[in-house]
Amino acid sequence: MYSSPNCYVKAVNGLNHSFDERNVDYLSYWVGYYANRPALKYQDRLTNNILQAGKQMSVLARLDPSKTTAYMDEARNEVAVMTHHDAITGTSPQATSDDYTSRLQSGYAAAKQVIRKAYSYLKSKDSEKKVVLNDVYCDFLNI
Known about the structure:
This is Glycoside hydrolase family 38 central domain-containing protein. By secondary structure, the chain is mainly alpha-helical.
């Protein structure tokens, strides 16, 4: 037992042990820590954006929660997975990153379903409309 870290260090130094020297570059793993996998991070932001829009549209259209909860829960769960420390930083293995991508695509599609339902409901309330247009959801409209 040592009374302080200083006493411990003094005792260890008094033993005159030599320690192995390591020549490993530990920094290479962390280079790009927050900059790698930008497409995955972008997809995470897009999915979260569409999730928030879906939540707002479902409230605006006063959709029945029993018909939208499953979609919204799926979108929320898939976005939540990306909060894992290996997910958002991009330090996960490629196979795991591929799984995150697949999950985000699933969440994105689920949130889009809610937006479609809300938009369809809001559009049907317009009794003055003479021409009915088919709506198309374009993911690349505002890039």
